Amino acid sequence: MEELVQQIANGLVLGSTYALLAFAVALIFGVMYVPNFALGSLYMLAAYVSFYTMDWGVHYLFTIILGIVIMAVLAIIMELLVFRPLATGPHASGFIGALGLFVILENAAFVGVGPEYRAIRSPYVDMALEIGTIKLTVQLLLVFLAGTGLAIGAYFWLLKTKMGKQIRAVSQNKEAATLIGIDINWVNFTAFAASGLLAAAAGGLVGPLALANPAMGMMPITKAFVVVVLGGMGSIPGAIMGGFILGLVESLGAGYISSAYKDCFAFGVLVLVLMIKPTGLLGTTELRE
Amino acid sequence: MTFLTTRSLSKHFGGVIAADELDIQVDQGEIVSVIGPNGSGKSTLFNLITGIYKPSKGSIVFRGEDITRRKTYEIINRGIARTFQATRLFSQITVLENVMTGFHRRTGTGVLGALIKTGMSRREERETPQRALEVLEFMRLGHTKDRPAASISGAEQRRLMIAIALATNPHILLLDEPTAGVSAEEAKELLELISEIQKRGIAILLIEHNMKVAMGISERMIVLNFGKKIAEGTPQEIAQNEVVIEAYLGRD
Amino acid sequence: MDKQWMWYRRGVYLALLLLFILMPLMLKRYHMTALGTGLFYVLLGLSLNLITGFAGRISICHGAFFGIGAYACGLLIVKTGMHFWPALFLGTVITGIITFLVGIPFVRTKGPYFAIGTLCFGAIVSLIILNWVSLTGGISLRGISSPAGIGSLTFRTMGTYYYLLLVVVLLYIFVSHRLFHSRVGRALIAIREDEVLAECTAVNARNYKLMAFTVAGLLAGFAGGLYAGYMRAIDPGLAGIGHSFTILAMLIVGGSGTISGAIIGPLILWLLPEFLMVAADFRLLIYGGFLLLVIIFMPQGITGQLRMISPAIGRWLP
Asked: In 3-state terms, chain A is what percent helix, strand and coil (to 5)?
């Protein structure tokens, strides 16, 4: 029983980071119709920001904020230099550009800081709370609360604020949105910054739990893609919920079925779903031109 | 036997009714035009007939066969061809190659035939460019044959779209606003060509925004508004039809 | 194009072929090894070109089919004692079947789902190969025998293998060329340019995409089996996303959709770092960088760009 609760707790924690990443992917996909693989690099770089700035004595929590700021800026630079020029071409170009960016950043990290796994010593990893017979590491709690809070907060931002509404308008119908005077450039700008923020938060929070290494972004971002496809490519609630569900499935699967193949669950589910519904679970069946 | 018939054909997009209980009929060799204000469902009708949209309700029967649930390529294979309102072409290849693609329906070489030059594949590879050139010359595009499709003029591109459709050797040709965006003189030339096409026995269902053009060339006209058929008849009857006049005036 | 020029061009190609045939006499061993491996990438580029170049669908799992072919062949040899040539044949068939089955759902997808689906499939394959240690030996599979000789030819040296590879490259070029200049090729290109319009010429897009995907996978699997016999030991990295990305980058940089691009891209991107002795770590960085630059500034790739600049040069780059 204790095992089960532990697995569920791990699953929810993992899920909150997947939710953040999936949110980020869905956001950019909504406004630009591009699956932005490069978010995985921002995730990884944020963890490294934590690692290095903590060496200089910055408190862990501040490093997360630092990571968020840096990655938001990096995301905006990506939008300006890569995605905006590619937006006028065929859709596939954006995807290829994102892949290229990811590979560049991942390997720049390999070359720059080396492939070794680095431990990020957050002070919360060693603290624990006891609730009855269950011991919860504070770090886990932090990730879950911060991750979930951020995801929900960002969702409300999307729903209630002016910019959020503009982003949703562009995601639904870009032409109509321009006709009513929405500045697409600003919308893209903000969407990218927000995505960078979310991806960086996920990376910074997860950092101390997983060891930081240059390749750490590949699996999570690919899984985030899976979540977004399954939840319906533009749907944010679908992305958030899907992230949590995936986290739980992986954690329970790793515990009870197989730890080595836990990464396969997400991908296997995707391939299966595509077999049954090639447009994704919540996608439409009409042609998108 | 009826040629092309739709019965109660409807298409709903969530709350929007794009096509509402359409009963349309085209007889063999006729020229029928479909007119109506913007958004009245004309292109939706074409998309329904050619399988690009799945009907929410109703049926489509072509030469005695129910094609309602068929996929686009199957429908084209049965002899219905179409053009699009916005120019669509295979832009990176030459004009001739565009039309050669249209010959897909009339030829049959598969992978095996492509790899080992069978008699059929050799014959088809020899004939297809020749026959494609004939179609191009009919559409007065012979002089552009080796140019990339993206590089020819707007009016030429619209004729090319028709050429590709003709290459499939259809029984009926659905033309979606063929004269859109071309000059008056080019429109006149297009209408002559359309008349020629009909003379070769191909029925034509034509969406036309310009009332005068439509009346000049059609034997029969169908008027849509808000997805419904509001009138049908000869051009003279339609010109005097009160419902039609109101629909157009009301939109001003 | 007039006949005379065509023959002239064939002469030039023949001369190029002669150059490649004479390479073993001109290059040192280290460079020959690099060229040999480079030819494998040419095979991969040519096969990927069928689905990504001709049909226009980005596939990021081509390495996975290469890996499946390599492991199928290698495992048949190591575990059942089969000889190389039957194992190569059977391994290719297995790869073809897997490609076909995976392709069935994928060709029904729209938009980016095809690419994402292939990405995930590739991830699954490399994870399985890596983790199913009892079957695949985990991080590496060793002890694959080299191909049995044909007549008096043995394949134990890299030299003979090189000529075998040249023959296979010519075969893949032949297949690509024949498909391109045929009704099938026209249908695939139509699908790439505008799938809906292609359907309006009675082209069954799903079937054609499935065909292109399957043939691409088959050819990659065959190349994989050859690779297993060449290297005698293989590792899961062959099927990894990094490898698939590399192959895609090579094709796009060379010029996706053109046969010459599928040859030039892999040769340049493989041989240049080899000859310049660039460390392995930097290579992916360079590939990513090249891909990004090309997709932004020269999306048609090297051959595509050359064609656009000058049709005269373009005639040399089919």
From this structure: 75, 5, 25
